[in-house]
């Protein structure tokens, strides 16, 4: 589309094309960046879940919110990885429900961590407990870390509370 006779117009097209290509490369790098186990061990599962929510928000799949309260502490490396895997799997499963809003709240207290995931579904009539109860791998991981699970769900809204002892 470059016309050498209209050099000023061509220069503008070249500049705009460079900006678009640069933005596309930046977006692709951001979307494809994955967290590895080393990142979770180094920074913790709270960082990992916040990062995953940012990726979801960036992709404009749904609105996301992350809240952390209390005095932060770390679990053992193995438990950090398992908690992250549990939360990551829950988020992926929840996204299949075509959610419009996804909130993750982590509350640290002296003896435990409460992880609450709240989501608003676009699929009417789906209950969150149906999602969790049928997932054997997820339930086994919860048992491995000694976590308690509480699910509240109504049509269109789900709340998952995972309590992890220090």
Written overview of the protein:
This protein is α+β, with helices and mostly antiparallel strands. The protein has six helices and five strands; from the N terminus they run αααβαββααββ. It has helices at 7-32, 37-43, 45-58, 77-95, 128-133, 136-144, and strands at 63-70, 99-108, 112-121, 148-154, 157-165. It has a five-stranded mixed sheet, covered by helices on one side. Helix 4 (77-95) links the parallel strand 1 (63-70) and strand 2. Helix 4 packs antiparallel against helix 6 (136-144). It is elongated.
Distance between the termini: 63 Å
Strand neighbour order, sheet with most strands: 1-2-3-5-4
Determine the structural class based on helices, strands and strand pairing: alpha+beta
Counting DSSP E segments of at least 2 residues, the number of strands comes to 5
Which of globular, elongated, flat, extended, rod-shaped describes the shape?
elongated
Low-confidence stretches: none
- Strand % is 25-35%
Order of helices and strands: HHHEHEEHHEE
Main beta sheet: strand number and arrangement? 5 strands, mixed
Mean pLDDT: 83
Radius of gyration: 21 Å
State the helical fraction: 40-55%
- Give the number of helices: 6
């Amino acid at each position: 589309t470059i016309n050498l006779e209209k050099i000023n117009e061509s220069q503008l097209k070249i500049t705009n094309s460079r900006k678009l290509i640069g933005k596309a490369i930046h977006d692709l790098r951001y979307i494809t960046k994955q967290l590895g186990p080393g990142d979770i061990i180094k920074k913790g599962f709270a960082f990992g879940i916040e990062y995953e929510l940012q990726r979801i928000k960036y992709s404009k799949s749904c609105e996301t919110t992350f809240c952390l309260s209390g005095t932060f502490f770390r679990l053992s490396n193995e438990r950090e990885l398992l908690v992250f895997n549990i939360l990551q799997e829950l988020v992926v499963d929840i996204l299949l429900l075509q959610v419009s809003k996804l909130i993750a709240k982590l509350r640290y207290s002296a003896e435990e961590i409460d992880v609450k995931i709240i989501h608003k579904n676009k699929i009417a009539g789906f209950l969150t407990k149906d999602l969790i109860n049928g997932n054997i791998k997820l339930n086994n991981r919860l048992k491995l870390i000694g976590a308690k699970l509480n699910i509240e769900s109504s049509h269109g809204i789900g709340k998952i509370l995972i309590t992890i002892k220090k």
